[in-house]
Amino acid sequence: MTDSYDIAIAGSGFAGSLMAMIAKRLGYSVVLLERGRHPRVVIGESSTPLANLLLEELCRRYDLSAIAPLAKWGSWQRKYPDIGCGLKRGFTFYQHRPDRPDDPNESYDNQLLVAASPHDEISDTHWFRADFDSFLVQQARELGVVYLDEVKVDQVVCRETGASLHGARHGETFSVNTHFLIDATGPRGLLHHALELGESPLPHFPATQALYNHFSGVTRPAPTSLSESAPYPPEDAAVHHVFDGGWIWVLRFNNGITSAGIAATDELAAHLRLEEGADSWYRVVDSIPTLQTQFGTADAVQQFRHMPRISFLSSRVAGERWAMLPSAAGFVDPLLSTGFPLTLLGVERLARILEVAIDSPHLESDLEVYERRTRDELLTTARLIAALYANMSNFALFKKLCLLYFAAASYSESARRLGKPHLASSFLLHDHPQFGPRSRDLVERAMHTSPGAETNRLIEDILRAIEPIDVAGLCKPNPRSWYPVNAAELLGSCSKLESTPEEIEALLQSCGFYQPQQQS
Ligand SMILES: Cc1cc2nc3c(=O)[nH]c(=O)nc-3n(C[C@H](O)[C@H](O)[C@H](O)COP(=O)(O)OP(=O)(O)OC[C@H]3O[C@@H](n4cnc5c(N)ncnc54)[C@H](O)[C@@H]3O)c2cc1C
Predict the structure, then answer these.
(1) Nearest CA to 37 among 142, 145, 126, 152?
(2) Is 378 in the pocket of ligand 1 (CB under 6 A)?
(3) How far apart are CA 182 and CA 187, in angstroms?
(4) Cβ atoms 433, 130 nearer than 8 A
(5) Which of 477, 474, 500 is nearest to 485 (CA)?
(6) Are 498 and 415 in contact (CB under 8 A)?
(7) In Å, what is the CA distance from 123 to each residue of 69, 87, 234, 344, 517?
(8) Are the C-beta atoms of residues 81 and 254 closer than 8 Å to each other?
(9) Which burial class, exposed, middle or buried, applies to 78 when counting CB atoms under 10 A from its CB (0-12, 13-18, 19+)?
(10) 240 has which bridge partners?
């Protein structure tokens, strides 16, 4: 069998299917090639305000109305209650120290709570990827994308005019010729192997490993007077349990499943013997009283998966007639849920390139820009997360370093929602003329900062750097480290967004910030 398509996309995770739907909407013939078969277990589940905004914008621009409800908790629950989902009201961080094994909910010192939404209706979500990705593939097929699963691609030949893929499906050989090939197969995926591309280093980033699973029967911690007054229920969030050299994530879905795993430096992973799987997991969980209680009666629903290396950066991201999505080009760490927004920014940029036409004389230079931006964003993310790993035992600094991320993310989201994307044209504002270089300096300093006076100086400098882009009140004194979403802060920061209070008020109304009873 030999077929020809304008565009071939390898990998039918959410990003490959979304890219395929967009390409189809732009009038191209599209084939989507998948090695496995849906539904399948995939890790990478927690969305963010920026990720959901990007999804919403893509759905609007390319008329994907069936996908749009998945960008918010409320519309998702009404339209697709059978697609597994988790409520993510914010980012919860608890620090654990072997010398203080108390419940992190009982003290402000060892927690950081950053709300991402003011109420459930417009909240972010965790995507139960088995359901979510199957649904997207089904939608792509309904739009006319040709979908071939269980394919084994053995050879990829890239030429000036296009690419051909050769392989086998269900015992028969096949070839696909295409004018443009998009790799959405994830890290160390199809093109990385087929074109024998090397890996690039992620400077300063520690070598890390992961061990993870899905569980049933994970209990919620009992509410305390502290957790009951928090800006959102702390467990309705991406919950991060941080300790020296690593951290554990806990993401609850509404179908009884909880996703949990540990990411750790090689040194800690060796100490914990992560490669042992279940035994290692329960040893770690049993050493943290609050997790021991939650997971004590839980059952693992899959085999434990050990990932011997989490981070990755491909030496190439795009070529003459091919491009990798950011998720195939590289990955840093799940710590700040950066995978989805980075991937969706890549989908958006490739979609703009496809809008112009794949035989445009600018294709080559457009792809060079795409490659540079993708790498820059991954490297910026790696620098910040490296600084966080370096300070997991210096939690005062860890918390403030996180604010670099939250400040840039909330500023970017607001700027985009106001129709002023030029104010925030890069992930983490890394090419912002002032914030970009300052933030780079700060995270570099944080790699070598000791607790005490040096940490205090760095914290002051972080708050000074954030102030000009802070639209969420992150710079204000906050002894609890609880950051709610606050309309007054955004209104008071309107000049930072080159906007009037009326524009901000209109934005708050249009994005559903106020619940119906609050409007009256
Ligand atoms: C441990 C961990 C936790 C993470 N947690 C988060 C998180 O909480 N939030 C977040 O934003 N990001 C997270 N990420 C990142 C997130 O997983 C990715 O950003 C996301 O999965 C990218 O989606 P995708 O559709 O591009 O690729 P994937 O989900 O990786 O899908 C790739 C698809 O390609 C198929 N495939 C692979 N090879 C081939 C081949 N040769 N031929 C054809 N098909 C192939 C696979 O079967 C799969 O269906 C996490 C990553 C890891 C490793």
Answers:
(1) 152
(2) no
(3) 14
(4) no
(5) 474
(6) no
(7) 12, 7, 14, 18, 17
(8) no
(9) exposed
(10) 93, 249
d(CA 485, CA 474): 10
Q: Are strands 163-169 and 330-331 parallel, antiparallel or unpaired?
A: unpaired
Q: Residue 334: helix, strand or coil by DSSP?
A: coil
Say if ligand 1 is within 6 A of residue 156 CB. Answer: no
| CA-based max dimension of the chain | 69
Cis peptide before 39 (omega within 30 of 0): yes
Tell me which residue has tokens 């009283």.
289
Residue nearest to atom 51 of ligand 1 (CA): 44
36 lines ligand 1 (CB under 6 A): yes
**Cα–Cα distance, 446 to 434 (Å, whole number):** 19
- Burial class, 492, CB count within 10 angstroms (exposed 0-12 / middle 13-18 / buried 19+): middle
Distance 16 CA to ligand 1 centre (A): 10
Which residues are CB-contacts of 517 (< 8 A; sequence separation ≥ 6)?
Answer: none
Give the distance (Å) from ligand 1 centre to CA of residue 411.
27
Digit-by-digit pLDDT tens for the chain (520 residues) are 779 999 999 999 999 999 999 999 999 999 999 999 999 999 999 999 999 999 999 999 999 999 999 999 999 999 999 999 999 999 999 999 877 766 666 667 889 999 999 999 999 999 999 999 999 999 999 999 999 999 999 999 999 999 999 999 999 999 999 999 999 999 999 999 999 999 999 988 999 999 999 999 999 998 887 788 899 999 999 999 999 999 999 999 999 999 999 999 999 999 999 999 999 999 999 999 999 999 999 999 999 999 999 999 999 999 999 999 999 999 999 999 999 999 999 999 999 999 998 888 999 999 999 999 999 999 999 999 999 999 999 999 999 999 999 999 999 999 999 999 999 999 999 999 999 999 999 999 999 999 999 999 999 999 999 999 999 999 999 988 999 999 999 999 999 999 999 999 999 999 999 986 644 3
Q: Ligand 1 centre from 35 Cα, in Å? A: 13
Residue 212 CA: nearest ligand 1 atom is 1
- Is the Cβ–Cβ distance between 501 and 494 less than 8 Å? yes
Separation of first and last alpha carbons in the chain? 63
Task: Strands of 266-347 (E only): list them.
Answer: 299-300, 305-307, 312-313, 318-319, 322-324, 330-331
- Closest to 11 measured CA to CA, from 36, 30, 29: 36
What helix, strand, coil percent values describe the chain, rounded to 5? 45, 20, 35
Pocket flag, ligand 1, residue 182 (CB < 6 Å): no
Cα angle, residue 379 at apex, residues 457 and 305 outer, rounded to 5°: 105
8 Å CB contact between 72 and 113:
no
Cα(307) to centroid(ligand 1), Å: 13
The residue contributing the CA closest to ligand 1 atom 32 is 185
Q: Is the dihedral of CA 420, 422, 427, 430 positive or negative?
A: negative
